[in-house]
Amino acid sequence: MRRKAMRIAIIGFGGVGRAFLRLLKDKKDELKEINPQVNYVIDYMGGIYDPEGIDIEKLADFSEKNRDITKYPIGGSPEITFDSMLANKDVDVVIEMTPTNKDTGEPGMTHIIKSLENGFHVVTSNKGPILLGYKKLKEIARKNNVQLGIGCTSGGALPTINAGIIDMAGSNILSIEGVLNGTTNFILNEMESTGVEYQEALKKAQQAGIAETDPTLDVEGWDTATKLLILTNVLMNEEKTLDDIKVEGITSIKVSDIQEAAENGQKYKLVGKTVRKEDKLEMSVRLEKLNPDNPLYGVDGKNKAVRYTSDTLGDLTIIGGASGVTPAAASILRDLINIYMGCKFV
Amino acid sequence: MRRKAMRIAIIGFGGVGRAFLRLLKDKKDELKEINPQVNYVIDYMGGIYDPEGIDIEKLADFSEKNRDITKYPIGGSPEITFDSMLANKDVDVVIEMTPTNKDTGEPGMTHIIKSLENGFHVVTSNKGPILLGYKKLKEIARKNNVQLGIGCTSGGALPTINAGIIDMAGSNILSIEGVLNGTTNFILNEMESTGVEYQEALKKAQQAGIAETDPTLDVEGWDTATKLLILTNVLMNEEKTLDDIKVEGITSIKVSDIQEAAENGQKYKLVGKTVRKEDKLEMSVRLEKLNPDNPLYGVDGKNKAVRYTSDTLGDLTIIGGASGVTPAAASILRDLINIYMGCKFV
């Protein structure tokens, strides 16, 4: 008996999208039960549509060499758009991977809303819509009895959302504390281990492809703030904005500060933290000196970590999270599988 | 509209069972959606049955003072047994919390099998049946389209099973490495921080109520081996037994060993480890000298931790897990909620 396929639309076909396709190809045998069938791949130029399922191997090969998917010989066309998918409705899950816009959330916001309203599950890597309107999106998902997987938006391979929802089920999360940005972690490590000042360490990180040419988002703390905001709103049922977080970066730290801390057995980390104090939520991103008994102390290099404290399940720290497009794609696949398996995230 | 209740039978009413009842009482408002209704509480002397749901507050008060639940005024009787529950069938989930027997698994094994066969979900804290027959139990659960929650059997509040199944979904676990026993961790810490020898540190652990009067299971490594075996069989789909694990304890370590390691910046931990080498699985429990860059290095005192490596999601280390009956009960509640929410563990 052939199992019913899980019909997928991939919206946004950049690095993570292509890695996701490769993953579906490489894990074909393991995914037999889920039987994923990609009916659509769509990006801003147009898309590919095959109601019988796009040949993943062929498309993976094609897209290694050719970025214009509208040229794909079987079903590729500038006419295939998000709206044509909505009109056809032959989809079970929409994977939304368009570029993040933190001011408007578009085009992801519209994609996600319309997909949920049409009864499609959504899994997304797009931080913008989650930052700006998670509560609203959650309501829409619930109303339409579909799921919204957002694991990739806060930590990628590090299962911050899973851990907060599934692993802490039945307990209340009282605080969130995380080392959530690999770039600043790398820079601080570099300063400590080689004794170079910030600018030099940043340059090294840029040469290693870890920091971007414009590193502002990372080094000024905004990437950490974004992830902290998503975790706080999702796991503590809040509707905070970036304005509610006191954000400081790492740009003014000196090697002498780091060395002084090291002499006391301490380490500086850029920590994002949400703590409920009486009835107020305090949210901050700033350099903190951690003692060795803090489980975040040892989170080095490109690793990330988050620690939750709770009322009945004690503390939980999760450390890990490989970086890059394949682990990010694997976190999309994780959400997809868990939704297929019946887990409820909203 | 009143929601349909989730009807529960509590089988085995020791410390964790009573803590679980208190948790249901304390979290009544939070659990409104699930609407748990305890129809049975049964132990070896008999039980309590109320088809409309036992008054949890009253029973919690009663059982603080009185261990013989058959004396409970509303529905308590020596005639109420596991079999009477099977005959009535007015249950959705059986919480199996009878004492562990690692040789026969009984009476838990029979309870779990019959419950699953009768179409009840099962959540258990009982290591015996899981150790001896997880694969068989999983098959029975699948065949009867019900779930089997075993989170409490390996790490309690530390979500080792959740993390391995849900947080690593879509990736293959290549190795498992854990500091899974709080007692040995405490003893090794004590030796390091105060410079006393093993016997002295053990005595302290016993006085603090952390080590048992007969500490063999902990200090000889068998508790760690048991948890490692469960994780290996469940997460790597194996059918190993304790005989397949090379087990060494901590009883012969000297303070001088610990100090020598400390001078090199290393720490001794009792590590349970499963690694796939070529086509063979190597399983061991033994003292290992860990470097500071190992995420298990900082797992101190009563904390526990496990680290998974995977093919596509990188490494994941989880650290935490409060000890005691309330966190253990909270891990039972976690499984219950996740099963209610639709997560599939088998």
UniProtKB/TrEMBL annotation, chains A, B:
SUPFAM superfamilies: Glyceraldehyde-3-phosphate dehydrogenase-like, C-terminal domain, NAD(P)-binding Rossmann-fold domains. Keywords: Amino-acid biosynthesis, Methionine biosynthesis, NADP, Oxidoreductase, Threonine biosynthesis. Residues 12-147 form the Aspartate/homoserine dehydrogenase NAD-binding domain. One of its GO terms (molecular function) is homoserine dehydrogenase activity. Transmembrane segments: none annotated. Residues 159-337 form the Homoserine dehydrogenase catalytic domain. This is Homoserine dehydrogenase.
